[in-house]
Specification:
Length: 126
């Protein structure tokens, strides 16, 4: 059996730019791509906390250390500067690859700086 698993998550990054006339994609600070393991041109799913939009595009590398999260092309209609979004990448793994697998979960402050890294989501009290 092969399962689609969360590979990486950028939790609550802030959109810094929206470029409607740019070729479609999501530009992400290169240092954040490296920290998360998301590759340039990899498919990403974006969940907008401000308006509930959920959409799929691909990642491109923005300047290292810039904090840039730019929605480009049609994605610029789905998220605006100042919106907080969750960016996720997924991987298809077989049973053997699941052993010991943990996603890379990165959590951010309002300036798109990593404030916490994790390999699992904390359990919430019932």
């Amino acid at each position: 059996m092969r399962l689609t698993m969360l590979k990486a998550k950028l939790h609550k990054v802030t959109v810094t730019h929206a470029e409607l006339e740019y070729e479609g994609s999501c530009a992400i600070d290169g240092a954040l791509l490296d920290a998360s393991g998301i590759r340039e041109f990899e498919q990403v799913h974006i969940y907008n906390l401000a308006n509930g939009e959920r959409f799929t595009t691909y990642a491109i590398r923005a300047e290292e250390g810039s904090g840039v999260i730019s929605m480009n092309g049609a994605a610029a209609r789905k998220a605006a500067p100042g919106d907080r979004v969750i960016i996720c990448a997924y991987a298809v793994l077989d049973e053997a690859e699941l052993e010991g697998f943990e996603p890379v979960l990165l959590y951010f402050d309002g300036a798109n700086r990593i404030v916490r890294r994790a390999g699992s989501i904390p359990k919430q009290a019932a």
